[in-house]
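lol so apparently i was supposed to do this last week
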Amino acid sequence: MNKSPDELLKELTLTEKASLCAGLNMWMTKGIERLNIPPVHMYDGTNGIRKTNSNEEMGITTENVPATCYPTGSAIGSSWNTALLHEVGVALGQESKTMEVELLLGPGVNMKRTPLGGRNFEYYSEDPCLTGELGAAFINGIQSEGVGASVKHFAGNNQEFEKMVTSSEIDERTLREIYLSAFERIIKKSDPWTVMCSYNLLNGTYTSENEHLLNDILREEWGYDGVVLSDWTAVNDRIRGLKAGLDLEMPGPAHYNAKAIVEAVQEGKLSEEQLDKSVSRILKLVERVTGNKAADREANADYHTLARKAAAESIVLLKNDNAVLPLRPETASSIAVIGRFAVKPRIQGAGSAKVTPTRVDIPLDEIKEMAGTLATVNYTAGYPEDDSVNEDLIKESVTLARNADVAVLFVGQPEYAESEMHDLKDIELPEHQVKLIQAVAAVQPKCIVVTSSGSALVMRPWVQHVPAVIHSWLSGQGMGRAIAEVLFGYTNPSGKLSETFPVKLSDNPSHMRIRGENGKLYYREGLFVGYRYYDRKELAPQFPFGHGLSYTTFAYTDLEVVQHGTCVKVSFQLANTGKRRGKEVVQLYVHDEECKWTRPEKELKAFAKVELDPGEKQTIVFELEERDFSYFNTKYNRWVADTGYFQILLGSSSKDIRITGRLHCDFGKEEITFHKFSLLSEWVSDPAAKAVLEECLNEMNEHVIDKVFLNEEFIGFWEDFPMVKVFQMFGQTWMNERSPDEVIQELIERVERVRNN
Ligand code: BGC
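anyway here it is w/ beta-D-glucopyranose bound
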């Protein structure tokens, strides 16, 4: 492009402008040769590049161009490692350039409202702080290479069932605090070149046409000036979409909509100025993309090693009784490896995020290689490929396990269960696997279970019978190696659950309303998603959010919490008290002691992954801001941090809080805007208003028998009464013919005068 977007905008005809607002085909934008405007090439995805063989095909069920397959969202979400996400982002940016990919359609950052969400494997977490921090790091990595990212699916797309025709009905506070919060963090911290809107409606309007979402919040409030593009076919009314700020329709060419845009401008139904805004943003994207340097990596760069490292950071050691892990050759000289996933690992989910991997590490091969000559390794399939229960396979497994020192079982959700386009039916292991684990555990006390799934699993029917569980998620092409390293202790596990694992599915807060009915899905659990709900209900999960064991131990001491102006500084000492080098994920939660509005017991506000040698200590410092103490106050339509006491909780999981501090926070209050129904409590909380009110009451008390004094007793009883009603109750003989409304109005004006002086 040799002219600036502004210059080009002046030279484009109306028809050309309209045509630029949709793609050329499945994966490209249109170019305009006469003005030297090149097309942009974009491809999925979230945990690797899914570049199709042709730009005319969707390529969901075919093999595509091989690319590195990294751990899926929920897996890498469990790494809690922003540096790793950045590194993977950089690698994806580099790989994109060698594949002529200019814009990568990821990451997916929707919240996991229900463990049944069909695309949960693509998403990082049930928590917006964790998701937002990881997503921003990933995007900064990709974009540092001159390749664009597309954060998706904006917003409220939390399940697959009838998503194209279902409205996610989410109240404003929940929307802001839970479902938009990660997007907001990402927009502010990484400025993604594009945002992809979702398929669903949000509170009655398609997100691709939603003025409140795209215009009021994304553009006006968050200041986003990049391109908003549609999810594939998510456009319904193109003109409404443009008016709301949906710039680019995908896929194209959508000639019918180009025609509709031209007609709408000619008929005065869409202003050309509005169209120009979208075209200008698209041209800026083209400009950014063409600034992209030519391929600058060696064709054989070692991304596979990075895929292994990412998998190793993602795997979560859920249980390790009697330190049965890591395996030691002196006590494990014969190992029974049981389960088909040991030879055919599930490395990812299905749908648009599915990558054709460059290679795949096979767990059984890796275990054999690491066991070397020290241990014999025998394998049996354990369960059939279909869902049937095969007693012969179970018997064979029992014999193998009985004759070994240790058994390692590979189980998980079947391949078909986790895919875009449909939700999961349940989160239990298939019956044939549950029976297998129970039978093997009955004969082999050292029974180690390695689970694979992209969403939480219910483990109650068997978990109490086995000493060790490793959750390997769907951790990409390096997963086989990473599991073997954890088993033998070459990797000290450091993953922490990015979502709660419930005891049973019905414990989940969304359980009453998982599916939409007649086009509406009410998010009635509100703010209480994931651990926010389990905390509030005092319901013990199987494994809580943030849980994950290590082969070493950590101690938290010397906590200090101080407020300096608008910043709250939290510092403490973390020490590795065990015998191995290891990484701890330190989690900082905030608890609001005083807020009158309902708030979750605690919310994650910061975290860090810290690596320490045995005996090593490090001072960890977090700096929190006003926003970290705030809730979205729908009365004022803004974030509010109440003045009062807060607790800072630091821990190794959401249920393993190691050290707690308390502080009184005061970020300064904005003045209350008084109105007729302002409550007595509000009047007395504002010094100017209280003084005016007291003056008025003194006057009133001279004329009434039941006098009003603003003492503790009176306020304690009447605080939730609107002041206007207090006058109605106590001041009638004084007000005479003046109405309570007039008295209040006069008071409000007096407060204004005092404030202005
Ligand atoms: C998915 C998007 C994806 C797009 C292109 C859609 O079905 O929802 O996440 O980027 O297809 O493959």
